[in-house]
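As described in the Methods, two query proteins were run sequentially through the folding procedure within a single session, without resetting any intermediate state between them. The first query and its resulting structure tokens are shown here.
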Amino acid sequence: MASASPNAAVASFFFLALLFRASFAQLSETYYDQTCPRLPNIVRASVKKAIQSDIRAGAKLIRLHFHDCFVNGCDGSVLLEDAPGIVSELNSPGNQGIQGLEIVDAIKADVEKECPGIVSCADILAQASKDSVDVQGGPSWRVLYGRRDSRIANKTGADSGLASPFETLDELKAKFAAVGLDTTDLVALSGAHTFGRSRCVFFSHRFANFNGTGSPDPSLDANYRRFLEGVCAAGANTRANFDPVTPDVFDKNYYTNLQVGKGLLQSDQELFSTPGADTIAIVNSFAAREGTFFKEFRKSMINMGNIKPLTGWRGEIRRNCRRVNSNSGLFGGEGEGEGEGHGVM
């Protein structure tokens, strides 16, 4: 039989290369089945331990995952601290006061004991966020794995891409759309504010002269405003519960609070109080039935976790979630470090 032509051989090579690349492009539930099969159990135990000692731990972890995925995709870049060649995203105004790195360190240490050099910090954030939600009463879902960790940070991207508590609905929609998330994702993911706390500096502008009107934010319930003013009398860094009813439980009360003008942040209340907004009907549906909210939250968390992950030979598996590896070869092994996305096969 005649041998294949050079052109056919080249075409075959590129076809195989595309298949190889595609095999790494998809995240998978089974990614660690052979290399770290107990990963979900390890992370869940570590998250439960953290919540037992700090009731805010779950909210801290899910916020880190959100802020990671909205800048350069879900690549662990939010965890990187300042270092030569790296200006940390933690310096961004959008990450002001963000906490929980020590919790991630503890989870990473537990994972490394059993599966050294296998699991990325980005995947740990995804798994820990799921556990943070269902441990505190929320929905569960099957986490997809296979993300790798970035060797760079993007403070400029954090400055422009992270949602702000001072933004209008249109501004929030634009930031979600920029990363491929729609209006339902916006409303569902905002429901993570059903637990956790916020500092007064992020919502006290609603108390008086809101947007230069000389009056308080009209969408903020007057009695709730007076309560918050009392809380914030202790100082701008004082924290208030996002949900004044069940602050440590993941439930649908975030949405019932919006219906009565008790959204803590301006960006929260915008979902319900913006005249004619399409988000109002979504808020009402989530407030009416917790199962509807949970179903959409699961889907939206998976959607968010799929934002531009580094896979295959791109990035690395960081040994320390706050630092890039000093030597970064293919798949996080030893060797000279390559630039982002340029590992050698």
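Immediately afterward, the second query was submitted; its sequence and tokens are:
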Amino acid sequence: MRIVAPCWRPSIEGENSGRGDVAGRVDGLLWYKDSGRHVNGDFSMAVIQANNVLEDHSRLDSGPLSSLDSGPQGTFVGIYDGHGGPEASRFVNSRLFDNLKKFTSENQGMSEDVITKAFLATEDEFLSLVKKQWLSKPQIASAGSCCLVGIICSGLLYIANAGDSRVVLGRLEKAFSEVKAVQLSSEHNANFESVREELRMLHPDDPQIVVLKHKVWRVKGIIQVSRSIGDAYLKNAEFNREPLLPKFRLDEPFHKPILKAEPSVLVQRLHPEDQFLIFASDGLWENLSNQEAVDIVNNSPRNGIARKLVKAALQEAAKKREMRYSDLKKIERGVRRHFHDDITVVVLFLDYSLISRNSNRGPSLSIIAGGGVFANGST
């Protein structure tokens, strides 16, 4: 912990923009911000580390969604689940939101096209970085990140996903007085038949585009996700050679990207029945079903709810290994990865009275998980 603590220590600029824990708190390998306000309601965030180096990165931004004073206001959530190292997820966390604001300004509004452009621009920037560092740091070519983004703007909800993180909506079914789970994101994982079919259609001349290894479907027998930012070694053949590690190198050449960075985008209007959104990396969903997560949020106090979801996932992970939760908590990072993944959770509660005003304005807020709270526009 003497090594990891400086990476987690939060820094604060501006005014006290949260409630209760202000910039978030650290408890061993857990970072959490139990409660805060975004322009459309309350929120809660939590991250638990399992890898030697945290590969999950995330942020929440509330306020301006463009660089223009007259531009739209809203709430942005980004969940970036890295693989092959933290470089891609860390880079996306620092660049994607800025690119989104740039294209929102240029297009004078939010749209599906704006979000897609932000993803692809961030991808281009990261691949340029890989090219610059290829000779000195070739293994960055094997770093990639799943990217899940949610935006609330002008009464609309935009969900963009590349990879296998997931967002689930808790929606009140008035006829039954129950809150039902509604999955909003499309996951790009080769274990889904629809994803394998898409890959075969995109690569009709490659019979080995998906391979079943140890009962798990993988793209080229290497990676489960079919979309990501990064993973340059599967997008540009110039990076699929020495000195990249042999386990990432393909035997046969390829002439077009094997993985895509373009996200699947959903746009829908929010309604009074829409109660809350749960954004999380796949580490949560490996241990909790959509409805289990929604039931926990619906039946618990808002304060600390993201931390409670993380705990529920860890309890389930311990149960699967026939061990006590208290013993799991004692396991150090790195070794922890054998029991569960890094897990990031952001819960957004939806206040329809605020959402329906459209021109909602308030103090701007930016929280980078584990890295601090930045208020009134200073990031």
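Residues 1-20, 372-379 have pLDDT under 50 and may be disordered. We note this only descriptively and draw no conclusion about the first query from it.
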